């Protein structure tokens, strides 16, 4: 199995001894500097508390309804979708460094905690669906639906968070692009995680991660609840016929600026698509 693939911890079993965590990636486990990620599945009445430490954290309510709080703020009965495939923007809670986020499940809930180094420059806040930016990009089999959760729509110290739905038989993060070189304004360096969900859940998608020199060249069969780490290189996703793909992206790096570089071998597709 690729070292870039983190399997869903609960994919082959039911909840055991109250276990809720399906994913955990830290800078130490990923052998990089910036991005951390964890996901939890909570039964109604369950709860989880995340201490932010030196990170800022964005808790994305992937599905279900919750009560949420930080040290100074609280929000009740938030969450407006029961599935990530409803094509509704999520509710999210942002917390700065040296704070906490507590999630209490009203219904069964899936929640993702997106982490990156924080300077404490922003206050805890609720990010509503109306504050997100939802758009459809691409044409034909390269069509995908993108929702910016904590991107240009909202300020933060380091974090960039968005989610993408790719229809059956389609491609996304395509043509292949990368953002692994600190060379603004041409390109910025950003680590990235992809947290994948599949509909129906027994399906799979393919994700390739590769560099120009092929020092990294991994193609992974990714199942529901799996996570792919992208330390560098290009990283397209392909979805088999009959299934649709969702993924939550977390990015962070030396600067909070997303400037990507397309693989020159495949950049011609962009000009071709403009004529469609």
Automatic annotation (TrEMBL):
One of the record's GO molecular function terms: 5-deoxy-D-glucuronate isomerase activity
Superkingdom as given in the UniProt entry: Bacteria
Keyword Isomerase: yes
Keywords: Isomerase
Positions of region (Disordered): 1-23
First and last residue of the signal peptide: none
Keyword ATP-binding found: no
Enzyme Commission number(s) of this protein: 5.3.1.30
Gene3D superfamilies in UniProt: Jelly Rolls
Protein name, UniProt field: 5-deoxy-glucuronate isomerase
Phylogenetic lineage: Bacteria, Pseudomonadati, Pseudomonadota, Gammaproteobacteria, Oceanospirillales
């Amino acid at each position: 199995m690729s070292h870039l693939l983190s399997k869903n911890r609960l994919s082959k079993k039911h909840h055991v001894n109250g276990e809720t965590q399906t994913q955990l990636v830290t800078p130490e486990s990923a052998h990089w500097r910036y991005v951390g990620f964890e996901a939890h599945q909570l039964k109604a009445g369950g709860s989880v508390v995340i201490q932010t430490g030196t990170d800022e954290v964005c808790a994305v309510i992937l599905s279900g309804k919750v009560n949420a709080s930080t040290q100074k703020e609280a929000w009740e009965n938030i969450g407006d979708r029961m599935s990530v495939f409803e094509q509704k923007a999520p509710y999210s809670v942002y917390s700065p460094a040296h704070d906490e986020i507590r999630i209490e499940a009203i219904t069964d809930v899936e929640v993702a905690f997106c982490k990156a180094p924080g300077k404490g420059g922003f206050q805890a806040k609720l990010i509503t669906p109306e504050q997100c930016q939802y758009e459809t990009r691409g044409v034909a089999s390269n069509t995908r639906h993108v929702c910016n959760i904590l991107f240009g729509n909202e300020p933060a110290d380091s974090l960039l968070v968005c989610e993408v739905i790719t229809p059956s038989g389609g491609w996304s993060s395509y043509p292949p692009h990368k953002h692994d070189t600190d060379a603004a304004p041409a390109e910025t360096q950003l680590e990235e995680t992809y947290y994948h969900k599949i509909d129906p859940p027994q399906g799979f998608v393919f994700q390739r991660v590769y560099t120009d020199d092929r020092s990294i060249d991994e193609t992974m069969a990714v199942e529901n609840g799996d996570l792919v780490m992208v330390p560098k290189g290009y990283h397209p996703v392909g979805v088999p016929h009959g299934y649709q793909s969702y993924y939550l992206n977390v990015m962070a790096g030396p600067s909070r600026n997303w400037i990507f570089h397309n693989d020159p071998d495949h950049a011609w597709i962009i000009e071709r698509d403009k004529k469609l």
